[in-house]
Amino acid sequence: MTHQACAGDRLLPVTERLTRFIRAGEIDGAGLAVAVGGEPVFEWYGGQAAPGLPAGPAVLWPLASISKVYTAAAVMALVERGELTLGTRVCTVLPRFRGGGRDDVTLWHLLTHTSGLIYESPRMEELLRRQTPLDEIVDEAYEHPLQFLPGTRIGYSDYGIALAARVAATVAGRPFPELLRDLVLAPGDLRETFLPPPPDHYPRVARVRGAPAEGSAGAMYNSPYALALAHPAFGVVATLRDLLRFGLLFAPSGPRILSEATVRAMTTDQTGGRLLGTVLDRDEEAPMSWGLGFMVRGATDPEGFFGDLFPPGSFGHAGASGCMLAVSPADGVTVAYVSNRHLNSDQDRFLHRNAVVLNGVLAALTHRA
After folding, report:
1. Are 102 and 327 in contact (CB under 8 A)?
2. I need a surface site. Which of 95, 220, 227, 356 has the fewest CB within 10 A?
3. Is 2 exposed, middle or buried (0-12, 13-18, 19+ CB in 10 A)?
4. Rounded to whole angstroms, how far apart are CA atoms 105 and 132?
5. What backbone phi and psi angles, to 5 degrees, belong to 41?
6. On the CB side of 74, how many CA atoms lie within 13 Å of its CA?
């Protein structure tokens, strides 16, 4: 029996569970792709990606915050080339970013979410509804006081990733989408990944239920404005197959566009598992682990993004649009999961579906017959 056939048999309970979620109306559509030992072995789709658009290989899924890892990869390519270092202070590239502790913020702080920057504008939905240009949105990062001294806590921040992209674009003298294309997408053979997608691809984009500013001309992920915004923290769209291929660029035995040293730095705990923080706005913060762009599963997983079975040392990232990329180096398993219901619709059910998928895949592929 081929690896593909074996994986298909073992993963049938996972796809059956996803089908139940679709039939129950929790999500409209979904896709699941899995690789073992660096080789894709499974791909499945179910339901509707958007009205009149069945989930399938050609669909472009809004990856939401998984975009942050793509941005981090482009930034780290510049670090490899000597154009930046992780110790580069943001104010030396963006002189307006000064005062109130900002002078001490480095590129490392931005990529590990330890800069002290707030998550996003308190007016984000208003900015989306007004179809505000990206530069104007990111400029607000210069105005809000830091929440804490750089390096003392973890504060998940869209602003931090957007500023990292602005630093990279400024140093390179090119728009960030061009940098991403030339440093990550083209060398990674990610031909069905876009920031932003061309307008003629809009009909292929999945529709995210419950997205911020839903129903307006600026709806996140769902409007021509939002797709063209090219926000480095949440704007990437990709096919499921390309998302898996991107994950394999960092997985053991996968292909490489960055050096092993860079991959190791991005995918291992940079924060020591000791800094307190939260991604989900929980009342109580807990020790968290972050790589450079990547979420890292430390001794604990306080937010629950990696489900129950992915071991310490696993890495990946979640996307609030209903997506997850997870790699277990210990098991040689890479999982790409996409769906189309926003985290804000029901945070607990979002995490439940995510855990069901990740638990089911890892249990199936590590089960001894």
Report:
1. no
2. 95
3. exposed
4. 26
5. -130, -10
6. 30
d(CA 150, CA 103): 10
Q: Which of the 8 DSSP states describes residue 148?
A: S
Distance, in Å, from the CA atom of 139 to the CA atom of 6, rounded to the nearest integer, reads 51
Tell me the backbone φ, ψ of residue 198, rounded to 5 degrees. -60, 145
pLDDT tens for the chain, 369 residues: list them: 455 657 878 999 999 999 999 999 999 999 999 999 999 999 999 999 999 999 999 999 999 999 999 999 999 999 999 999 999 999 999 999 999 999 999 999 999 999 999 999 999 999 999 999 999 999 999 999 999 999 999 999 999 999 999 999 999 999 999 999 999 999 999 999 999 999 999 999 999 999 999 999 999 999 999 999 999 999 999 999 999 999 999 999 999 999 999 999 999 999 987 788 878 777 678 888 999 999 999 988 888 899 999 999 999 999 999 999 999 999 999 999 999 999 998 999 999 999 999 999 999 999 876
CB 209 within 8 A of CB 340: yes
Query: How far is it, in rounded angstroms, from Cα 211 to Cα 204?
Result: 18
SS3 201: helix
Q: What domain range includes position 203?
A: 3-365
Tell me which H or E stretch contains 337.
strand 333-339
Residue 238 backbone phi and psi in degrees, to 5: -160, 155
Return the number of other C-beta atoms located less than 10 Å from residue 15's C-beta: 18
CATH number at residue 346: 3.40.710.10
Three-class SS state of 87: coil
Distances in whole angstroms, Cα of residue 295 to Cα of each of 10, 309, 317: 27, 16, 5
Under DSSP, the state recorded for 75 is H
The letter for the amino acid at 143 is E
Calpha distance 356→13 (Å, rounded): 10
pTM listed for this prediction: 0.96
Nearest alpha-carbon partner for 85 in 102, 105, 108: 108
Report how many domains make up the chain: 1
Separation between Cα atoms, residue 210 and residue 229, nearest integer Å? 19
CA proximity to 256, closest of 247, 265, 269 = 247
Number of CB atoms found within 10 A of residue 122's CB: 11
